[in-house]
Design brief:
The complex is a heterodimer. By secondary structure, chain A is an all-alpha fold. Chain A has nine helices and no strands. Chain B has helices at residues 40-47, 74-77, 81-88, 93-103, 115-128, 132-136, 154-168, 174-191, 207-219, 237-252, 264-270, 288-293, 298-307, and strands at 2-11, 14-24, 29-33, 55-60, 63-64, 139-142, 225-229, 256-260, 273-278, 281-286. The chains are: A mainly alpha, B alpha/beta. Chain A binds chain B through residues 126, 128-129, 131-139, 142, 146-147, 150-151, 229, and chain B through 48, 50, 133-138, 140-141, 143, 145-151, 160-161, 164-165, 168, 201, 203, 214, 217-218, 221, 227. The complex binds adenosine-5'-triphosphate and magnesium ion. Magnesium ion binds at residues 40-41, 229-230, 260 of chain B.
């Protein structure tokens, strides 16, 4: 196959299958839905973990630390496989859809990373800020909510944006379970055309355009945030 | 007004304070001097419990800020198992107390001293303690690194703690309270000639401006005591004067102040009493004249010969 042939196939496959049969829309839809669920649920759960960890209750800290370390220290694909079998069993829902399983697993995975993002974001705020607030007789709660967190958020949000991009790429693992996201469409199209390489290149372009534009958007957002004090 | 009773402070195995007792009277200006690392900041920070003393008690206006230290209450020791055991072994009361002190025999943390002991500890605590946040509102601190709130404007920095305090106190008319606090904040800013910086963020200010704002942020709480931890050490030389001037005015106006400082001339000029902290103790204590003209402790003499 020459370069021109590959380019032509890329174009044809894109027009016929991705536009014509709507695979671009459905693939992107699932990818974004999975990523959004994982990042939002992950952020909420991750914030919760970070808060509990800061409360200083020892047994809870151990459990959470173990959870975070294990999820960060094992491959996401392995976690998806385990979740695929374990979650329906644990929740007592045998016929649970692969999409739900994958969404839960990715959320837990992202929670582990987000809790670390929040922890380090808070720790990056100068200790002097807390000391000044406490020395004026403010409660630890007021200090956290009105002095520390508003400053930590400036460290946390950009990192959360990066986490979102990481998750978008990670959702491709869900194709193992034929969930329907972007990477799954590759399996579909390859089955129809028996032409792997151009399909993969098409998908690569879609992922890249998605993550690249998101990271540019975040860059603008970050500069705005920095400008406002 | 402020009493520090036999405080010890350990950081892990490092013993920084080894039994410090002192007091601050209303209207007094006290300077704490000593070599770097001698525990001056630690002593100051123990006064408002930014560091919790390992042993010993801090009292403010007759209220206990720290947990109860059994070693300071013979009546507590006398109901402990350890004390009773020593008596049974034939010790006299005085000998038993001395032995317990010398060998640190009370295990109050291991709750092995019996119910009477615990009950008495709790009784003393309940009868005397004050919430630390309440106490801190009356003894604000000024830091070497200013520590202005980065996410707030100058005016918000000054108003923040008074407003939150009004909320804690469930002030009914918050709007009126805020207006009053704002007026007061502007008044304070005017006093230091920085009204036009009211809407500026701390990052745009010079060190001297930051520190003077940190001082009026403390003043806005109407404190009974102000604690200063080397307020001019992080400043460029040309800005030290403006901060010391403001502190001089406060001292002249009768503010009670405790100042950790390396500015010997200033300490000599404004202080009623100077504490020389060294090797975990207050090695010498006296009026500026006594300390500078007639120092007794050899380590103090050595220190003064180096800094003067
Ligand atoms: N939070 C902490 N953890 C561990 N060690 C500490 C802590 N704070 C202070 N120290 C140690 O305690 C000792 C006394 O410190 P401190 O800050 O009170 O000294 P200082 O007299 O104020 O010195 P300087 O003049 O340099 O400010 C030092 O050896 C310091 O390293
Ligand atoms: Mg110090």
């Amino acid at each position: 196959m020459t370069i021109t042939e590959i380019l032509r196939s890329m174009w044809n496959i894109f027009v016929t299958y991705y536009i014509g049969q709507g695979l671009l829309l459905s693939g992107l839809g699932y990818t974004l839905a999975l990523s959004a669920i994982a990042v939002v649920a992950g952020a909420v759960l991750g914030a919760l973990l970070a808060i509990i960890k800061r409360s200083g209750f020892k047994p809870a800290i151990w459990v959470i630390s173990a959870f975070v370390e294990i999820l960060r220290g094992t491959p996401a694909l392995l976690q998806l496989y385990i979740a695929y079998f374990l979650i329906p069993m644990m929740l007592g829902v045998p016929g649970m859809s692969p999409f739900t399983c994958v969404a839960i697993a990715l959320s837990l995975n992202s929670a582990a990373y987000v809790s670390e993002i929040i922890r380090s974001g808070i720790e990056a705020v100068d200790k002097g800020q807390t000391e000044a607030a406490r020395s004026l007789g403010l409660t630890s709660r007021t200090t956290m909510m009105k002095i520390v967190l508003p400053q930590a958020i400036k460290n946390i949000l950009p990192a959360l944006g990066n986490e979102f991009i990481m998750i978008i790429k990670e959702t491709s693992l869900a194709s193992t379970f034929f969930v329907g996201e972007m990477m799954t469409t590759y399996l579909t199209v390859r089955g129809l055309t028996f032409n792997a390489l151009p399909t993969l290149l098409d998908i690569g372009i879609v992922y890249f355009v998605l993550t690249f534009s998101l990271s540019k958007l975040m860059g603008v957002f970050e500069r705005r945030m920095k400008a406002s004090a | 007004m402020l009493e520090v009773k036999n405080i010890y402070k350990n950081f892990g195995s490092l013993k920084v304070l080894k039994g410090v007792t002192t007091h601050v009277e209303k209207g007094e200006v006290i300077s704490i001097i000593g070599v770097s690392g001698s525990g001056k900041s630690t002593l100051l920070r123990c006064m408002n419990l930014l560091e919790v003393p390992t042993f010993g008690e801090v009292w403010m206006e007759g209220k206990l800020l720290t947990p109860v230290d059994p070693y300071l209450h013979p009546e507590v020791i006398e109901v402990s198992h350890t004390f009773k055991k020593l008596l049974a072994e034939g010790y006299s009361r005085e000998e038993a107390l001395k032995t317990i002190h010398a060998n640190d025999l009370l295990k109050e943390k291991h709750s092995a001293e019996g119910p009477a002991y615990k009950a008495l500890m709790k009784e003393i605590y309940d009868a005397n303690h004050q919430d630390i946040n309440e106490a801190r509102r009356k003894m604000s601190m000024v830091f070497q690194q200013f520590n202005l709130f980065n996410n707030k404007t100058v005016l918000e920095n000054v108003m923040f703690a008074p407003i939150e305090t009004a909320k804690y106190n469930h002030v009914k008319d918050m709007k009126a309270a805020k207006a009053e606090i704002e007026e007061r904040a502007y008044g304070l800013l005017k006093r230091i000639g920085l009204e036009e910086k009211a809407k500026a963020y701390p990052s745009t200010l010079s060190g001297g401006q930051k520190q003077r704002i940190a001082i009026i942020r403390s003043l806005a709480m109407n404190p009974d005591v102000m604690l200063f931890d080397e307020p001019t050490s992080a400043l460029d030389p040309e800005m030290i004067g403006e901060v010391l001037d403001l502190m001089r005015k406060l001292a002249a106006a009768g503010m009670t102040m405790v100042i950790v400082t390396h500015e010997m001339g200033f300490a000599r000029e404004v202080s009623d009493r100077i504490l020389f902290v060294d090797e975990g103790y207050i090695k010498e204590e006296g009026t500026p004249d006594q300390i500078f003209r007639d120092p007794h402790d050899p380590r103090l003499r050595d220190f003064l010969s180096k800094v003067l």
